[in-house]
Amino acid sequence: MTVQTYQSKLVLRTLKAGEVYRAKPNLSLRGEYDAMIDMLGLHCECPIFAVVKGKRQNTGGKVSSSVRLTLEVPDKYIHLTEYAEWADFLYAFKFTRPGNYKVLRPDCEEITVRQYNQLLENLKTQKKPGQYDCPQVVLEKIEPAWLKSVKIFGKSGLLGRIFGK
Length: 165
What we know:
By secondary structure, this protein is an alpha+beta fold. It is built from four helices and nine strands, in the order βααβββαββαβββ. The strands form two sheets. It has a seven-stranded antiparallel beta sheet with strand order 4-7-2-1-3-8-9. A two-stranded antiparallel sheet has the order 5-6.
């Protein structure tokens, strides 16, 4: 599947050096990312997010000094979630019991237990890409062989285009 992800120039250098890229944990979203890892059965410290090329996207990802990587990822490494459901989970996570994302705090009034359980189930359930409104790709790693093309963005806009292997 062809996917696109926005990463730093360091990620590009890692891939160009022939090394596999694995994301390091984001401390501010550690609990949320650990929950995603658990829900999808991932084997990584931190998930890597991408979009399906040609499908509806909810975020452009274009930030200063970012690199858009276009990857051809074998299907067995693809995990999908609905972007809006991930966003809802990020909001609802703050109402969960500390250390247990599966359980809401008893004083939570923002979302019902039934709604929250359905949200968790939706995030876990893998569907075909066409069954998502805004499919979000979740990867454990990026292999150098998956790199197909690169666009580098800088503070003044597009700086250049480098083609992968």
